[in-house]
Description:
This protein has 506 residues and is of the alpha+beta class. Among the domains are: 17-228 and 489-505, no CATH class; 373-484, no CATH class. The chain contains 18 helices and 17 strands. Strands 5, 10, 11, 12, 15, 16 and 17 form a 7-stranded antiparallel beta sheet that branches. It is globular, with a radius of gyration of 23 Å. The protein starts with 16 loop residues before the first helix and ends with a helix. It is a single-pass type II membrane protein. One of its GO terms (biological process) is protein O-linked glycosylation. Belongs to the MNN1/MNT family. Pfam families: Mannosyl_trans3. Keywords: Glycoprotein, Glycosyltransferase, Membrane, Signal-anchor, Transferase, Transmembrane, Transmembrane helix.
Amino acid sequence: xxxxxxxxxxxxxxxxxxxxxxxxxxxxxxxxxxxxxxxxxxxxxxxxxxxxxxxxxxxxxxxxxxxxxxxxxxxxxxxxxxxxxxxxxxxxxxxxxxxxxxxxxxxxxxxxxxxxxxxxxxxxxxxxxxxxxxxxxxxxxxxxxxxxxxxxxxxxxxxxxxxxxxxxxxxxxxxxxxxxxxxxxxxxxxxxxxxxxxxxxxxxxxxxxxxxxxxxxxxxxxxxxxxxxxxxxxxxxxxxxxxxxxxxxxxxxxxxxxxxxxxxxxxxxxxxxxxxxxxxxxxxxxxxxxxxxxxxxxxxxxxxxxxxxxxxxxxxxxxxxxxxxxxxxxxxxxxxxxxxxxxxxxxxxxxxxxxxxxxxxxxxxxxxxxxxxxxxxxxxxxxxxxxxxxxxxxxxxxxxxxxxxxxxxxxxxxxxxxxxxxxxxxxxxxxxxxxxxxxxxxxxxxxxxxxxxxxxxxxxxxxxxxxxxxxxxxxxxxxxxxxxxxxxxxxxxxxxxxxxxxxxxx
Length: 506
């Protein structure tokens, strides 16, 4: 299948990478040491978080480049760290690890209707925004998510987090040329340079746990965290206006109800009685370190996970947190992700750490009033059961019933997964597009209140991806068209990334 070449900045859909790659920068690839003499330090973009990449075209820095504000400069510790980072960047340039090629045209603010005629603020003064964690293999779906956010009318700053260089210089350049309200941040490097993390500890965040680390690290106060493989059916910034967020400063979403003896529902004995992993964690938590005492909230006492009905409580594909009201929760979150996770297996990946940080710190929190849903196909043998990827309804009982988002890596990713965590074959395969088009969900389970399930896992006839007896409804109008748009977007991006990589190799 032939793909139309895509300018990743979406300026000219017909513009190919061949047209925008400068011969001068092609030649620089063959002699990165000589190129590094072009004042390496001058090439480093110093954003307010100072983790953006070296500009690959130093003569035309991004229009949204900003310097550290004066109050940062007055902090000698930050200045020292800044110099260390600049030195590290210069070293990378001198050994030729950072290429110098201008591959992508700049996105002008007027490209997106939501950014049209809008003055671009200094990013360091923005306190409301979105966090998306990425690594190189996630770039096609990550960049397409950025386009999707703008398509949905969102104009908040987007912070892209990665760990220890998980995003290559090419990936970073593509990202910062995709959107003018975007920052790239590597908190692992900061913690490594400051001595907070050893190298081994820093490497332990090159996975799901980067997400809670990003929330702890970000300067943003009103934070939306969105997985790159989310498909958004409306602007997620609406979460900041729902009653739950206004009341507690949080909006969390429930995971599937999976009845098995693992994770939060792991079973063992304590003082001659059966105890779950969640109950154990609540009992052994060092409350005194945080000037607190044991005292489970009514929220957790009523939770299905506490009452032995499910191994999982939270789906963390999207969440909203007001950090102004979460200082104690952030302290507990740090303890969970840097210490507790090594001593007790209570979560698949990062997802339970968010609500647990609030529960263990006695900080109020809110879940959606609705259970999670599934998007996929209706079952021939059970027409009231839909099996497939997780989806969520908009989390407000006072609003109309409407599907909010789908978390579906396997529904939009142009790359094939080769292991169950973060392993992908990034060889571009255009034939996979037809496979994904055929897999676009046609049904969604109905909006329901979370309740125990009679299905015990593992279960061959009703696996955990199925919302047993929740009802089956056709997906809403426009659902398929939007999925097709997102799939085409990811494949166009993957196609041009593949071209860029081969150009660099040549």
